[in-house]
Every structure is written in C-alpha cells, then in structure tokens.
C-alpha cells in the first residue's frame, strides 16, 4: 500500500500538536486512511491470558481516548488497541496548550489530564462495535481513569469495570498518569491493595462466562520500595498483568528549554531506556509469573524485541507514530519477525524474558 505519511506528516506538523491529533482522528473516522494488512508472520502470533493476538504490537492508551477509531487502528496492522483513558463522567482536561512535540528528540510531552467524553459514550461505541459484523479483527482493551474531582478513587475504577468488563477484551487500571492530582499515590502498597481488590470484586460481580484480564499500568518514576510493593500486591491480589510504563515526569538532559520546564509526562525515545529498565525489574520481581506489556519509546522492531527480551509478552507504542506515521506498525512487525528468526526463536513467547536467562 502507498504510504501517504511522507506527504501528510509535514502538513500535520504545521498545526499545533492537538489540532493535528484531532485532524488525524477525523481522517481515521471518515475512512480516509487506507487499511494495511502486512505480511503473514506466524512467529508473531501470541496467546496471552487465553486471548489470541495476531501480533504483539499494540496501540498504547491516550491516542483513542473515546474509542472512536479502534477498528481503523486495528486495520493499520496493530494486534490490539487500547482505548481510553476513560473516566466515569465526561471532563474537559487541562487548559491548552497541553501537548508538545520535541521533534529532534523523538519525544512528546503531554498534560492532557484525562480529557474524554465519559464512560457512557465510550461504552456505547463498544456496544455498536460488538454488534457490527464488519468490525476489524483484533483485540480491544479499555483503559480506566478517575475523574479529577472524585474523592474515593476506587469508586471510579469500580464504575468503569462494571460497565466495560462485558465489552472489552481486557481492562486496565491506570494509576500512573502524572496529570491527575494524587493519582500516582494510588501505586502505594495499601491504596493499591484496596483499589485492586475492589476492581477485581467488581469484575467477579459481573458474573461473565469469561472475565476480561485486568491489568495495572504503572509509572516509570518509582522508588525501589514502590516497585517491590507493587510486585507483591500484584501477585497477591490476583491482577492478571502489568503495563510498564506510562509517561515520565523526569526530564532527560537532552530535552531543551522551554519544553523541559513544562509540566506533564514525557514519552517517546527518551523514555525507552528508563521504561525498559523498570520492565526488566518488574519481570524479575514478579518471577515471570505475570504477563507484562512493555510501553515507552518503542519506534522499531529492535525496540520491541528489546522489551520482549526484558520480559514483555506484548508491546505498545504511541509517540513514535507522531513522527513515523501509521506505516511504522508494519515495519515494526516485519523487523521483529526478522530478529526472532535471526536468533532462532520460533515465536514471541520463546523470547519473552530471554535477557534474564
Ligand atoms: C498525548 C498522550 C496521551 C496519553 N494519554 C494516556 C491515557 O489517557 N492513559 C494512559 O494510560 N496512558 C496515556 N498515555 C501514555 C501512553 O499510553 C504510553 O504509556 C506512553 O506514552 C509511552 O509510550 P510511547 O513512548 O510509545 O508514547 C498518553 C501518551 C501521550 C503521548
């Protein structure tokens, strides 16, 4: 298929990043972005949590906050798409500007603050999709957040689980966005135990024939104590997996002023090394017992492969697409398949955690 991004990309860069994103969503919704199938890569087929992924490369949360373009994104070749974060009630998020590019660094900085249309609009779209025989193949996750003004945070996640457990292939409890005051404190041992317990109870109360896996998404900016607490609580709570990681509040040396002084979470290339390190640590701390999704700075097959060797069963990306366009998905898949072949791995699962052996 023809890659239009070399033409469209520079045009999009003439708009401020949030306007460019809005135009991209519009184009995807209107079917202007052609589907791309890619090659047949049997080595990329992955079974995780009893779910069949055609390939392990997913779209990270935050691109499709309102579940408007999941099918369009699956048709670009992603094995899975994570929509959200969605909060129970609609909310506007932080004032603009709240999304910034650092082009030379291949980075993005955001402080969106969970702007979204709320749970009902999100769920209605997933219901329409469920009933649409023409929906795209592939898996769809729902990433749950909390409203800014909710005092008892766990309530919001419970509301999200109840509504979306019957509609999503997996659920994510996101307690790691840096742009909602107090959110990341939920990663502490006691609040986390309470939150995950209540979210898992809410899922059980749905009495579904098959429970969607419930994952916890964590920050890359954690102390050693935080990390071992999270691993312990994750294992004892019965949560099904972890996503490592969200954006970072750190500012690597190469991020220039005035951007480095902007509040928010940094993603893209500068996040690759720190998030992969945390991924590796979490794999070690959980003894490889919990499937992990690696996110943070993936922009090539080699990056995806490094996350898998560090312990990820699946990977996700978002920021690299801002710079590389949607053709990146197929490139990452092809490069990953070639790297697995080079190293004698018949399938992704055989390479998971290879760096620990
Ligand atoms: C603009 C933007 C918005 C995001 N919004 C969310 C969100 O709503 N929920 C969430 O869990 N992660 C969100 N993320 C984080 C991404 O899902 C991902 O964890 C992070 O960006 C690292 O991956 P990347 O380097 O490939 O972008 C957002 C990231 C960006 C760049």
Give the bound compounds. Answer: flavin mononucleotide
Radius of gyration: 19 Å
Count of folded domains: 1
Beta-strand portion reads: 15-25%
- CATH superfamily annotation: Aldolase class I
Largest sheet: 8 strands, parallel, barrel
Mean pLDDT: 95
Keywords: Cell membrane, Flavoprotein, FMN, Membrane, Oxidoreductase, Pyrimidine biosynthesis, Transit peptide, Transmembrane, Transmembrane helix
Subcellular location: Cell membrane; Membrane
Active site: 177 (nucleophile)
InterPro entries: Aldolase_TIM, DHO_dehydrogenase, Dihydroorotate_DH_2, Dihydroorotate_DH_cat, Dihydroorotate_DH_CS
Describe this entry's structure for a reader.
This protein has 357 residues and is of the alpha/beta class. The chain has one domain (36-356): TIM Barrel (Alpha-Beta Barrel), CATH 3.20.20. The chain has 12 helices and 13 strands. Helix 6 (189-205) packs parallel to helix 7 and helix 9 packs across helix 11. It is globular and about 50 Å long. 50% of the residues are buried. The model has no long low-confidence stretch (mean pLDDT 95). Flavin mononucleotide is lined by residues 60-62, 65, 84-85, 99, 108, 110, 112, 114, 143, 174, 177, 217, 246-247, 267-268, 271, 295-298, 317-320.
